Amino acid sequence: MGEVDTLYARFMELRAEIAYLNSANCVLEWDMETFMPEAAADVRAKVMAHLSGAAHDRAVSPEYGDVLSALKERLDAGRLQGIRAATVRKCWKEYERERKLPGEFVRELADLCASSHHVWVRAKDNSDFGAFLPNLQRIVELKRQEAGLVGFVGSPYDALLDVYDPGTTTADVERVFRPLRLFLSDFIRRVVDSPHQPDAALARVSVPVATQELLCRRMAESLGFDFKSGRLDTSVHPFTTRLHPGDVRITTAYKEEDFLDALYSTIHEVGHGIYEQALSREHYGTPVGEAASYGFHESQSRMWENLVGRSRQFWEFYLPCLQHHAGLLLGVGPGDIYRAVNIVRPSLIRIEADEVTYNLHICLRFDIERGLIEGEYEPQDLPEVWKGLIREYLGVEVPDDARGVLQDVHWSAGYFGYFPSYALGNLYAAQLYAKAQSDIEGLEDGFREGKFRPLFDWLRDRVWCHGGALEAPELVTRSTGSPPDASHFTSYVERKFGEIYRI
User: Fold this and answer.
1) How far apart are CA 50 and CA 47, in angstroms?
2) Among 11, 349, 367, 430, which residue has the least CB neighbours within 10 Å?
3) What domain range includes position 334?
4) Helix, strand, or coil here: 370?
C-alpha cells in the first residue's frame, strides 16, 4: 500500500468514528420525535449535546487535522483524483468550518435545540408564541454568533445557507425568488378568479387509521422503498432520518378524516428515503456518501410527491386500486380526483399548500430568516411580521400562532438557512423530470400501469450515483445538460394548471 493509500485508509477510519457518533444521535433524534416519553426530554437533550460535542471534537482533533491536511497537500499537488479528490475537497471545507466553532458553542447549541423541541410542541399545541420565545431568542442569538464565527462576505445569512445548499448565497436566492414570486402572484390570481374550480370535497377521504397505515406502506413499497433497509413510523411532523443507507427511517402523520394528506406525506418522505437508500455505502461517513444538498434532497421528494403522485396518469392507476381493494372513492373518475388533488388555494399552512402557492410560503420564511440573522427583525417581532408578509404574499389572515409563526419545527431545531432548499428543490425537480421524460419513452404511460421503476432506475443511474461528489447546480447541469433555472417549473405550472383551470 502506497503512502497516499495509507493516509486515505486512516482518514476513512477517522471519518467512520465521526459517522458512528452522528448515527447514534440520529437514532436519538428519530426516537425523540416518535416514541420518546415527554419526561425524557431534558436528559435526552444532554445526551444528544454530548454526542454532538464528541463528534465535533473528533472532527477538529489534531490527528484528524493532520491526516486531512496531508491529503489536502496531495490534492493540491494533483496526486488525488476522482472520488478521493472530491471527498478530500469537501471534507476540507467542512473541517475549515468546524474548527472555527468552539466545542462549548457546539454543545450549547445542540443542547438548546434538543430541549427546545418539546417547548415548541407545547407552545404550538397551546398556540402560545410567548412560551417558545425565550428559547427562540437564544437560538437566534447563537445562530448569529455562528455566522460571525464562520465568516461571510455578503450577508451573515450566507454562512448558514451554505450548510444546506453549498455555494448558494443570499443574493443567489433573491435572484431566483424575486421573479418567481412575481410570476406566482399573477398566476395564482388568475387561477383563483377562474370559474372552473375543481370539487374540493373529493380530496377529503375519510379512512380508518389502520387502513391508512396499510395503504401507505404498500405505496411506499410500490415506489421502491426497501423495508429491509428502512422503516415507516408516525410523528407529528413527517420527516426522514438516515443512519446509514441500510437504515433509513421515514415517518408520516395520519388523520382519519384526510387519507390523502397521509398518502402524499408518505410519498414525499419516500422520495427522500429512496434517495438515501441509494447512496454509496462505500463512502458512508463522507460528504460524497451523502446528498448533493438539502435543495437537491427536496427535489427528489417533491418530484415523487407532485410530478408523479399528482399526475393524471398516477390516478388512472391508483384510483381503481382504492376502489377495488378498499372500497374508496366509488363513482369518482380519475379526472375528477386528479383535479381535486391539484386545487390551488392560498392557505395558512406550508405543509398543506398546493404546488403553486407552496413556493410563496418559502419566500415568506426566507425573508423572515434573513431579516432575523441580519438584525432587521428580532424574535419578539415575528408574529406580526408573519401576519403582514403572509397577507401580502398569499392574501390570508392568521387567526392564531399555531397556524402562523409556530407551524414549523425548523427554528426550534436551529435550522436557519434550510427553508430556501424547498423552493430550490421544486425547481430542480421540474428540470430533472423534464429530462427523464425525454430520455424514457412512455414514462408517464407506464404510471398508468403502476410502473414506477423506470424513473427510479433513471434517477439511480443518472443522478443518485454521484452522491455528494458534485454540488447541486453542477449535478443538475450534468444530469440534464443545462444549468438550473426556473423555466422548467414555470412551464410545468402553466401547462398543468392552465389546463385544469382553463386559463
Assistant:
1) 5
2) 349
3) 170-501
4) helix
Name residue 244's beta-bridge partners.
Answer: 247
Of residues 98, 146, 213, 269, which has the active-site annotation? 269
Is residue 184 in some structural domain? Answer: yes
Per DSSP, the residues of 124-158 read: HHTT-HHHHHHHHHHHHHHHHHHHHHH--SS-HHH
CB 337 within 8 A of CB 315: yes
Enclosing H/E stretch for 47: helix 41-59
Tens of pLDDT along the chain (503 residues) come to 789 999 999 999 999 999 999 999 999 999 999 999 989 999 999 999 999 999 999 999 999 999 999 999 999 999 999 999 999 999 999 999 999 999 999 999 999 999 999 999 999 999 999 999 999 999 999 999 999 999 999 999 999 999 999 989 999 999 999 999 999 999 999 999 999 999 999 999 999 999 999 999 999 999 999 999 999 999 988 999 999 999 999 999 999 999 999 999 999 999 999 999 999 999 999 999 999 999 999 999 999 999 999 999 999 999 999 999 889 999 999 999 999 999 999 999 998 899 999 999 999 999 999 999 999 999 999 999 999 999 999 999 999 999 999 999 999 999 999 999 999 999 999 999 999 999 999 999 999 999 999 999 999 999 999 999 999 999 999 999 999 999 999 999 999 999 999 99
Same domain as 133, residue 203 = no
Amino acid at position 170, single letter: T
Please indicate, yes or no, if residue 160 is contained in any of the structural domains: no
Residues 292, 429: one domain? yes
Pairing of β 247-252 and β 240-244: antiparallel
Is-catalytic flag, 269?
Answer: yes
Determine the Cα angle at 480 with ends 486 and 305, to 5°: 65
Q: Give domain status of residue 158, yes or no.
A: no
Task: Look up the CATH number of the domain holding residue 467.
Answer: 1.10.1370.30
